[in-house]
Amino acid sequence: MQNIISKIKNIKLVVFDVDGVMTNGDISYCDDGREIKTFNAKDGQGLSLLPHYGYITAIITARKSDIVERRAKDLGITHVYQGAKNKLEALNELLKIYNLELNNVCYMGDDLPDLCILDKAGLSCCPHDAVDRVKESSVFISSKDGGRGAIRELCDLLIDNSSSSEK
User: Fold this and answer.
1) 167 pLDDT more than 50
2) Sequence-ordered alpha helix ranges (H) in the chain
3) Domain 2-160 is classified in which CATH homologous superfamily?
């Protein structure tokens, strides 16, 4: 745990995947083609608190969905990269915008497309139900599943160990 806390001191940018992290990974379709995703309110509360502690928040996901835009807007997440087939490319754009380094990034992902960032991020994180290869690359493995409190657990850890004076 001490290793995680020492890494948190460098974190400025917190980035999340969507399916399997912000949601439980289920994707439901209605007969009319609409997509349904379910988000956890406690995860959302944790996410919405991060900017008050000086963290920049972002979403990088390979899929595209209007629902993700709406959720990001509801939570005050201003950087949303959808349809990101190369997630590292999207992250590098954010790093340039804020003049940050990879060691300033906390990333939570759950599956193989997330490894390109997890293997480089300052603090690599995943939900309890992430695939094994992702768990092997993660410094912090939540005790909660994706869409079931994993994000809140990470947010609480970041906030509890934040150097922000608003704590």
Assistant:
1) no
2) 2-8, 41-49, 66-75, 87-98, 115-118, 132-137, 150-160
3) HAD superfamily/HAD-like (3.40.50.1000)
